[in-house]
C-alpha cells in the first residue's frame, strides 16, 4: 500500500486453516453393523468410508479391541473392519437360541477424531446335552416279581447352555407292569406293579 506521496508499506495477511469435520458413512447399507452366532457364524465385518477435505485426514485410526471373553474387533486405516467371535469362551457357549441377543458397540475414529459406532450382535444357539450314568450301569435296573419290587439309579447331564443342565421331571405308567419316574436332577425309579395279573 502507498500514501499520496508514494511512500510504501507492506500489510501481511495470514490465512489459517481449521479442521473440517470428517463425514463417515457405511460403504454399503448396514456395513457398520454385523451379526455372529455361536457355533455357526463366527466372523462378520464391513467397510466404512470417510470424506475429509483436510489433507491426509481421510483415514481411520487402525486398532484392535479385545471384547472381554466374547471376541475381537479390528479396523484398518482404510475402514475395513471385522469381528471374530471367541467361540470357545464359556460365556459364548452359555448362550442359547432363546437368549437375548448381545449387542456389542465399538467406537472408531478418523485422523481428526471424528467418531462412528460399529454394532455387532451376538446370537446364541442350542448346544446338545451329554447324558451319562452317574456310576456305571446307573441307567439300568432289575425288578423281580414278589421279591424285588423297585429299582432305580441316577443320570448326570452336562450342557453348556445356561440353565439347561436339568432333566424334565415325568412319571410314566408302563402298562400294567409298573411305574417309571425321573426327577429334574436325574434320579429315576421304577416300581413294579406286583399286584397286576
From TrEMBL:
Residues 9-83, 116-190 form the RapA2 cadherin-like domain. InterPro entries: Ig-like_fold, RapA2_cadherin-like, VCBS_dom. Residues 1-17 have a biased composition (Polar residues). Pfam families: Cadherin_4. It comes from the Bacteria. Residues 1-31 are annotated as: Disordered. NCBIfam families: VCBS_repeat. This is Adhesin. It comes from Photobacterium chitinilyticum.
Amino acid at each position: 500500500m502507498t500514501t499520496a506521496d508514494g511512500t510504501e508499506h507492506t500489510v501481511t495477511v495470514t490465512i489459517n486453516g481449521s479442521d473440517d469435520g470428517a463425514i463417515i458413512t457405511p460403504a454399503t447399507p448396514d456395513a457398520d453393523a454385523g451379526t455372529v452366532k455361536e457355533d455357526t457364524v463366527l466372523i462378520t465385518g464391513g467397510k466404512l468410508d470417510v470424506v475429509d477435505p483436510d489433507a491426509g485426514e481421510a483415514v481411520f485410526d487402525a486398532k484392535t479391541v479385545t471384547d472381554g471373553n466374547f471376541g475381537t474387533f479390528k479396523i484398518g486405516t482404510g475402514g475395513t473392519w471385522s469381528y471374530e467371535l471367541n467361540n470357545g469362551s464359556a460365556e459364548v457357549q452359555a448362550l442359547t437360541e432363546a437368549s437375548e441377543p448381545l449387542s456389542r458397540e465399538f467406537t472408531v475414529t478418523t485422523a481428526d477424531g471424528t467418531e462412528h459406532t460399529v454394532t455387532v450382535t451376538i446370537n446364541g444357539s442350542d448346544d446338545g446335552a451329554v447324558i451319562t450314568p452317574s456310576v456305571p450301569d446307573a441307567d439300568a435296573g432289575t425288578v423281580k416279581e414278589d421279591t424285588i419290587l423297585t429299582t432305580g439309579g441316577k443320570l448326570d447331564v452336562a450342557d453348556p447352555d445356561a440353565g439347561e443342565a436339568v432333566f424334565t421331571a415325568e412319571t410314566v405308567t408302563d402298562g400294567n407292569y409298573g411305574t417309571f419316574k425321573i426327577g429334574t436332577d436325574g434320579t429315576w425309579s421304577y416300581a413294579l406293579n406286583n399286584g397286576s395279573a
